[in-house]
Amino acid sequence: xxxxxxxxxxxxxxxxxxxxxxxxxxxxxxxxxxxxxxxxxxxxxxxxxxxxxxxxxxxxxxxxxxxxxxxxxxxxxxxxxxxxxxxxxxxxxxxxxxxxxxxxxxxxxxxxxxxxxxxxxxxxxxxxxxxxxxxxxxxxxxxxxxxxxxxxxxxxxxxxxxxxxxxxxxxxxxxxxxxxxxxxxxxxxxxxxxxxxxxxxxxxxxxxxxxxxxxxxxxxxxxxxxxxxxxxxxxxxxxxxxxxxxxxxxxxxxxxxxxxxxxxxxxxxxxxxxxxxxxxxxxxxxxxxxxxxxxxxxxxxxxxxxxxxxxxxxxxxxxxxxxxxxxxxxxxxxxxxxxxxxxxxxxxxxxxxxx
Length: 355
Ligand SMILES: *Cc1c(COP(=O)(O)O)cnc(C)c1O
Ligand code: SF4
Fold this sequence. Notes:
The protein is of the alpha/beta class. The chain contains 13 helices and nine strands. Helix 8 (192-203) runs parallel beside helix 10 and helix 12 (284-297) crosses helix 13.
C-alpha cells in the first residue's frame, strides 16, 4: 500500500528553497524554526506512545502491526492533551493503530472517492464549480487512523515547481475558478518559503479571489501559526480562509485558541471541519461542546463529515440513521451558526452532499 512520505523527508527543491530563504526571511534557518523541530520530534514509535500515556502493554503488538501499513505519527503537544491510562481517550483513539484496521469489511475500499483518476493536472482535483483543490504534499503532522487518504498514491505526484506549474496553468485557463484550496496530506508541513512562492503565483491569476488552506496543524501543532506563515497567508491579494480540523473539544487547548486568534487578527476567516467518528465524537453533548469551544476560540463549525468508507477505518463508522439523529439533536440545542453541515462526499456530485 502507498503511504505519505515522512513529514521531513523534503525534496531537493524545498531543501534549496529553505536554505535560500535564510537570508531573505531574516530569522532562524527554516530547519531550526520551532515548528519544524517539534514536527521532527513527533512520536513515531507505538511503544513510546504507550509509555508516555501509561497504557497497557497488550496494546503494543496490534499497534506495531497496524503501523507497518500506515505509520504512527503524533506530535508531543497533542499527546499532552490526552488522558493518561485511558485507552478509550477520544484523542488517542484518532491516532492509535488498532488490530481492527486489518479487518476486511464489505463496502470499505482503498479509494472510496475514486480520486486517484480524476485530476486535470497532477495533484489537482477539480470536482466542484469555482474551486479546485491542490494536493500540495502527501506529508502530514499527524496520521489520523480514519483518514480517507491513507491509500492515496502520493509518491506518483511530480515534485516541486513542475508539479505546480501544470496546476497553475490549469487554474489560469479557467476564468470561473475563484478559489484555490491547498490541501494534502497537510500543506502546512511544507516550508513557508515554498508556500509563499506558490501563494504569490496564485495571486497573479486575476480571476482567483480566495486562497483556502485545509490543515490539521493549527490543532495538532499550533506553533505552526508563526509570523512566516501569517506573512504569506494573510499578506497577499487573495482573501485567506483557514479550515482547521478538530474532532473533539479537548483538542482546542489554550495554545490552539491563541493560534486561531492570531490568524483572525491577521484578517483570515477560520472554519472547522470534523469527521463523525464512533468512540470519539458520536454523542450530542460531545459535538455540542466542540461547537461551543470552537466558537469561543474564533472558529465557526463548517462541516461534519460522514466517514469515508476507506479500508481499515470501519471501526469508526457511525450509521447514517444515527448520524442524522445526532445532527438533529445538535440543531435542537445550538444556534444555527454553531451547527456544522452533516455531509458526505460522493463521486460525481457537484458538491458535498447533505446526509
Ligand atoms: C471538499 C472539496 C472541495 C471544497 O468543497 P467546499 O464545499 O467548497 O468546502 C473542493 N474540491 C474538492 C475536490 C473537495 O473534495
Ligand atoms: S485527516 Fe488530514 S491530517 Fe489526518 S492523516 Fe488525513 S490528511 Fe493527514
